[in-house]
Amino acid sequence: MEKFTTLTAVAAPLPVDNVDTDKIIPARYLKTIKRTGLGAGLFSDLRKDGDGKGGAFVLDQPSYKDAKILVVGENFGCGSSREHAAWALLDAGIRCVIGESFSDIFSSNASKNGILLIQVPPEDIAKLLDDASRGANATLTVDLEAQTIQGPDGGTLGFEIDPWRKHCLLNGLDDVALTLQKDAAIEGFEGGQKAQQPWLYGA
Q1: Do the domain assignments include residue 128?
Q2: Residue 67 shares a structural domain with residue 159
Q3: Residues 91 and 120 reside in one and the same domain
Q4: In angstroms, rounded to a whole number, what is the distance separating the alpha carbons of residues 108 and 106?
Q5: Which range of residues forms the domain containing residue 180?
Q6: Where are the beta strands (DSSP E) in the chain?
Q7: Maximum distance among all alpha carbons in the chain?
């Protein structure tokens, strides 16, 4: 997966609590196991007004068309455990979500796909939502190594993150990459096993 180090980008405000994974990517889009193409369905039901037309949703507004950061409310990513929710966000270009809290399973899925989730207290969310409301004229800079968020006016907020998740994000390590780091040990084990139990390998 792509490393996450420093990101300077437009932040889109989505001040909604309890956005579940079905709102992030509705179930009708789950027919694929591919990680690409799901961005077209991101927040699909929220992006349509009563006439079934889009345009009012924040990510459909011209100021936020290039947003790579979302500032959200409480309990983002609750509901089902579908990893497609993380895939859809990433496919749409979202690399960082800042909120009051996140569901545990969504947090795991997001970090394993290179998306940084940042949990900050309500007073910081209020400030960041205000920053994000300025549109494309104001950007946030997220520095994972320093664990800081810098606003458009130069103010800086700190955040906490699990050290292991930080390590994996900084180095672009998903579960497969972590396993491949043990490649020599795996080959050594398989070589010894093949010598002692050759029948397991068809010999």
Answers
A1: yes
A2: yes
A3: yes
A4: 5
A5: 174-203
A6: 6-14, 69-72, 96-99, 116-119, 139-143, 148-150, 156-158
A7: 69
The mean per-residue pLDDT over the stretch 85-104 comes to 97
Is the same domain home to 29 and 96?
Answer: yes
Q: What is the pLDDT of residue 203?
A: 61
d(CA 152, CA 140): 6
- How high does pLDDT run on average in the chain? 89
The DSSP code sequence of 88-102 is HHHHTT--EEEES-B
**Residue-wise pLDDT tens digits, 42-61:** 999 988 755 545 668 999 99
Q: Which long-range contacts (CB under 8 A, 24 or more apart) does 29-33 make?
A: 29/84, 29/88, 30/82, 30/84
Distance CA 105, CA 86 (A): 11
User: Looking up tokens 């900050």, which residue turns up?
Assistant: 120
- Which distant-in-sequence residues (6+ apart) come within 8 Å of 81 by Cβ? 21, 105, 106, 109
Q: Are 13 and 79 in a shared domain?
A: yes
Strand-pair partners of 98: 71, 118
Q: With cut-offs at 50, 70 and 90, classify the pLDDT of residue 189.
A: confident
Residues 165 and 197 in one domain: no
Provide the β-strand partners of residue 71. 13, 98
Distance between CA 23 and CA 44 in Å, rounded?
7
